[in-house]
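Entry for the shared binder. Reason: the reviewer on the internal report wants the predicted structure included alongside the sequence.
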Amino acid sequence: YQYHSLNYDTILFLVILYALGHNRLMEIKTGVKLSDFSNYKTGGESDYFIVVKSADDIRQALLFAKEKNLKFFILAGGTNVLFPDDGFRGLVIKIGIDDFKIDGTKITAGAGVLVSDLVKTSIDNELTGLDWAGGLPGTVGGGVRGNAGCFGGEMKDSVAEVTALTPEGILKKFSNPDCGFGYRHSYFKTDKLIITEIVLDLKKELPREKLIELVRDHINYRNERQPLDYPNCGSVFKNVPTQNAPEWVREKIKDVIKKDLFPVIPTAALVHEAGLNGYAIGGAKVSEKHPNFIINFNNAKSKDISDLISFVKKEIKSKFSVDLEIEVEIVK
């Protein structure tokens, strides 16, 4: 009787939690500095913040948000996120499911496992398929959600199965085709699903020494060509499919067009041609080393970075009639 005012979804959450016998109290923090959880090192405080270690924890966190009528944000590694300067008025749920196991050529990993740890584990077990991710920051859950890729490889190439939690608190499994993988995209970006676990199916193709060499080469490439000395969130914009650029633009920079899933114009080349290298707003600057990176070079505010993103986008549209698509997730 005391729950007569609760709606169906809330009652369903309560029933699930009761059935699971999950009575561990989670620590919900207040006033957490979000700058500590973003590679840009900017952002204010979150009203509420929690680290979840299981699907059951996520259910409890969602129930907490529902009961307090809070919006929530799911945080993976923070490598591609820009938080607002005035913080987040709601609950940030940090995915901390970081256990994994190996069975033959398959690795089953919690969504919070660092990609770097999986790369190391794959090398130690002479498993091929993640060498392209050498030096890639972030978690495997975030990588799968955005179908991270570089050096000719992508997450989708190794994903066998993904487990995700629906807004109703139900776990669902998705095969590789169910994930809707595309260029820096997956089905999990468009639906309110929270990835909890990933099964990667790798191969036995190369010896450990060769895998170490490949990974080292990729890490060295990043160190040489990316502005890693400053806080940044990697490539700000997706590369541009050649079909989305006017013919005169394709002709002007034909020498730098490269093949990804399809022919693309590197956004860094467009930014360079627009003369935006080194352009700054406040403490944020377009990197001279890699023009598709925006760096926090001098105690930037999130607004400096977002204003610079908007400026670059506007300039590229004006000069080349190309609409850039943002990779960085700007939290509202």
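Summary line for the report: The first strand starts at residue 29 and ends at 33.
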